[in-house]
Every structure is written in structure tokens, then in C-alpha cells.
Amino acid sequence: MKIRNANEAVELYREKQIQQMKSKTWSTKYSEIQTLKLELETGLDLWRKQVLSVQSQSIRKAEERARRELEQRREKLAEEIKTKVKRCEERRKEKNKQEEAKIQNMKTKLKIKEKKVEQILTAREASVNRARMMAETTARLREIIRTQDLSCLLREERHRSVSIK
Predict the structure, then answer these.
(1) CA end-to-end span of the chain, whole Å?
(2) What is residue 30's predicted lDDT score, i.e. its pLDDT?
(3) Residue 34 has what pLDDT?
């Protein structure tokens, strides 16, 4: 019985020791849990801050990229407009050149026609003058012939009359 009591006493002592260890362990574990909880919360806060930082950076980068793309689109559009305006100006200049050449060509043709008309009028005037001169010459010649015929006739008449006498 003494052994039994001793065994029981040892068992009791052991149980007390285990309970004390469990108590210490629980207290230590609780302390460790609190420390771990604090570390996890600190880590979680740090992680949240890092996530917010990364999100902020991503948002800033996205905004900057959007600004750059918008600026590039504006520049491209401005360049396209500039090119279209330049092309339109070149076409307008070319059209003006063609119109100017057409007008110059028409002026040249008109001058040629005017020269031809002038030549025709000059030739007609010369022809009319020649015809007048010929008519005058013909009239003078007729007059001369008439006068000569009369003179000849008068001479012949005189000559006859003298021969008759």
C-alpha cells in the first residue's frame, strides 16, 4: 500500500507538474500567440501598405501611360492634319498653276487669232487699195484712150478734110 500510495503520490506530483507545465506552457503559448498576433497584424499592415503603394504606383503608371498615349494621339492627329493641309495646299497650288497655264494658253491663242485677224484685215485693206488703184488706173487709161481716140479721130477728120479739099 505504501508503494501504491507512493505511486499515487508520484502520479499526483506528476499531474501537478504537468498542470504547472501546461499552465506555464499556456501562459507562454498565450504570450507567443499574442506576439505572433502582433507580428501578423504588423505584417498585415505592412502588406496592406505595400499593396496600397503598389496600387498607387500602378495607378500613377497607368495614368502616365494614358497621358503619353493621349499626347501621342494628339501629336499623330496634329501631324495628319498638317499633312492633309499641306497636301491640300499643294493640290490648290497645282490647280492654280494649271488654271494659270490654261489662261496663258488661251491668251496666247487669242493673240495668235488677233494677229491672224490683223493680217487678214491688212491683206484685205491692201487688196482693196490695189483694187482702187487698179480702178483708178483703169479709169485713167480709159480716159487716156478716150482722149487719144478723140485726138486720133480729130486728126483723122482733119486729115480727111484736108485730103478732100
Answers:
(1) 233
(2) 77
(3) 85
Distance CA 67, CA 61 (A): 10
**DSSP for residue 142:** H
Place of cell 486728126: 155
CA dist 106 and 97 (Å) reads: 14
Distances (CA, A) of 104 to 84, 89, 108: 30, 22, 6
**For the CA atoms of 16, 19, 25, 27, what is the dihedral angle to 10 degrees?**
-110
The pLDDT, as a whole number, for residue 44 is 85
Burial 99-126 (b: 16+ CB within 10 A, else e): eeeeeeeeeeeeeeeeeeeeeeeeeeee
- The secondary structure of residue 1, as a DSSP letter, is -
Which of the residues in the chain have pLDDT under 50?
none
pLDDT at position 8? 77
